[in-house]
Amino acid sequence: MKQTVIPMKSDARLFIKCSADLSVEGSEESTLVVIVDHGDSLRMREENGVYRIQSDTDCRLILPDTAMVTVEKVGGDCQLKNLKSRVIIGKIGGDLKLDSICGASVESTGGDCHIYAAVGAVELARVGGSLKADGGESILASGVGGEALLYNFSGTIEVNSGDEVLLQISQSNVPEIRAKSGSDITLYLPENAHCQLDLKSGGEEISVYAGGQEVDLEVRDFSMPIGNGGAMVSLSAGDSIKVTDREKAGNDDHESFWDEDHWKNFGFDIGRKVREGLKIAGDSMEMALKEAEKAGKLAGREVERVFRDLDETRFRHGPHNNVVGFSMAENQASSSAVKTGPSEEERMLVLKMLQEKKISVEEAEKLLNALDR
Fold first, then answer.
1. Domain count for the chain
2. Which helix (H) or strand (E) holds 371?
3. Among residues 31, 97, 127, which one has the least CA distance to residue 260?
4. Is 208 contained in some domain?
5. Cβ contact 29:275 at 8 Å
6. What is the average per-residue pLDDT within 205-210?
7. Is 73 part of a structural domain of the chain?
8. Bridge partner residues of 133 (DSSP)
9. Domain boundary among 217, 245, 273
10. Position 288 in a domain
């Protein structure tokens, strides 16, 4: 397992691809934490605040909750949590789970889709399995293969499902609803609800127990106001339709579908790990600077010692204080001197000091560079 921690601005943009399962979580930290099963499966690059992340194995991302996230493609399951910017989601091979997000646009998910506490509008083009959503503004689900269970949405609701549709509304002013089902439709309203019903039943079975009225009909079409009337509620079912304010839909299994077992081995104390990671990085940088400073001072002393040794063993001063061993005329301008690099004796002396471990490789390189000047 590999973990990477890097600083990240709050307005960063991310484009993500994952061949396996993906988890994206927002946090208040100004860092990006990337955890993958295998280090060589991760490819990541950044340009002008835009990050592109691709993983061939399970991948978990913890990032600033205000970052703008686009999930382009996921081969397995995908979950996104605690994000304050609208998310864009492409193709998900397995299940999709959205928790506490600020709206989403989803192209497709091959499995089930679960949504909890969405702040902005949610748009789902295709859900291969069932859809369950609890809490949010508006929702548009134009193609749901299984059942659709929608609770406590305050804005426009539009859903087209191949199986049963269940809707629960909490506020008295019922929002505009357009629901189509291949099976039954059940609508739960509060006792003081206000709306206009337009019902179409393929099974010719319509029941209304709301607004002080009791209606049981074996008809295909039926319309009536509830309360003082209001927004249009259009329900079209392949089988029966039931509208009631005398019952409440059971919806207490939020925890059951947010199964964290799959990610528990990826879990850790984010704050502690990030702080530790940044501290280690800071300590390493400080140590590296100290070592560089130490190496520089040592290299300087070694350069001086090399020149002293060379001066004693080979270079002698002539009568005009010219260095013997260089073809330098007495009256020649100093600017005309050309240094062609360390001499063979200089190189041999540096190599000897390196062999005797009196200096390191880095210090030897600095000595040769100094002699080259």
1. 2
2. helix 361-371
3. 97
4. yes
5. no
6. 97
7. no
8. 115, 150
9. 245
10. no
Residue 261 falls inside a structural domain:
no
Beta bridge partners of 99: 81, 116
Closest Cα to residue 222, out of 209, 212, 207?
207
Domain boundary among 245, 270, 304: 245
How far CA 72 is from CA of 37, 96, 111, in Å, comes to 20, 13, 17
Task: Render pLDDT for 33-63 as a digit per residue (tens, 0 to 9).
Answer: 999 988 889 999 999 999 999 999 999 999 9
What SS3 class is residue 122?
strand
**Helix, strand or coil, per DSSP, at residue 303:** helix
Decide if pLDDT at 284 tops 60: no
Residue 61 contacts residue 34 (beta carbons within 8 Å) = yes
For residue 157, give the amino acid letter. I
| Portion of the chain with pLDDT greater than 70, in percent | 69
How far is the C-alpha of 140 from the C-alpha of 133, rounded, in Å?
A: 11
Q: How far apart are CA 86 and CA 7, in angstroms?
A: 22
How is residue 267 written in tokens?
């879990």
CB 85 within 8 A of CB 92: no
Residue 10 to residue 301: CA distance in whole angstroms: 47
Within 13 Å of residue 200, how many CA atoms lie on the same side as its CB? 9
Give pLDDT, residue 112. 98
CA dist 329 and 55 (Å) reads 67
Q: Domain range holding 352?
A: 345-372
